[in-house]
Description:
Number of helices of chain A: 6
Strand content of chain A: 5-15%
CATH architecture of chain A: Orthogonal Bundle
Oligomer: homodimer
Shape of chain A: globular
Largest sheet of chain A: 2 strands, antiparallel
CATH superfamily of chain A: Winged helix-like DNA-binding domain superfamily/Winged helix DNA-binding domain
Radius of gyration of chain A: 16 Å
Largest interface: A-B, 52 and 52 residues
Strand order of the largest sheet of chain A: 1-2
Number of strands of chain A: 2
Amino acid sequence: MSIPFPGVAVRGSKTGKPVMALLDLLGRTWSLGILWNLNSQALTFRELQSCCEQISPSLLNTRLKELRALKLIRHQGEGYCLTELGIELFNIIEPMGKWSVSWAEVVNQGDNGGA
Amino acid sequence: MSIPFPGVAVRGSKTGKPVMALLDLLGRTWSLGILWNLNSQALTFRELQSCCEQISPSLLNTRLKELRALKLIRHQGEGYCLTELGIELFNIIEPMGKWSVSWAEVVNQGDNGGA
DNA sequence: ACATTATGCTACATATTCTGTAGCATAAGA
DNA sequence: TCTTATGCTACAGAATATGTAGCATAATGT
């Protein structure tokens, strides 16, 4: 699949609206997980592999290429880390951490969803 | 794939941490797009199909089942709409709309990514 | 009553994407 | 030189998504 550059047609939208490129990117397996794990710490390729259980090296590399092309992460001496843009995006999704806890309470209240 | 209930092991995490269930859910094709399109308006099944170009009815139905089980959307007379939890989650991701515009500028600055 | 239209949804073959494992090339340390 | 680590490629098999057809139900019209 091609990299969802903002400004071009992506899965779900032919308009080129930037937010659609972003939703396409974040909707790909592991994109969000990689951003989440790179918060506040640089990780090597192999450390990322262990953080994201089950991700295959080929797919990890594909995602890393996409995220690098879209300037959300970069590769330095210590490993992969968020760029300034990546930090901004992380700050947007960061509240999900807290929110998901109250969400879990409601979801597991009505029917016991396995927890 | 099973529904990522918070509290149980999901793709990427065996800990049951709610945020990991959320990242798994949102990382599935079209989840974010459906939530985004349901903002501020109820849509019927077929309207959602046209909003999300290319989504197949079988996959749309799968995603709708997941989102309903996780109490983010519900089905009423007028069609599908966000629940209170769904609105809360939308409010978290809503800033992506504005942010993605400045992101697009930076990305298309360095190299002209097709725009 | 009967056709027409719309809605929510299922079925299923094909196409695309992801996983899992093996392994290579390079660099640093012992 | 031998070991260890890193970033990454290759590729077969498994899982997931697309695209098209079509069904059952309900509302609307005549």
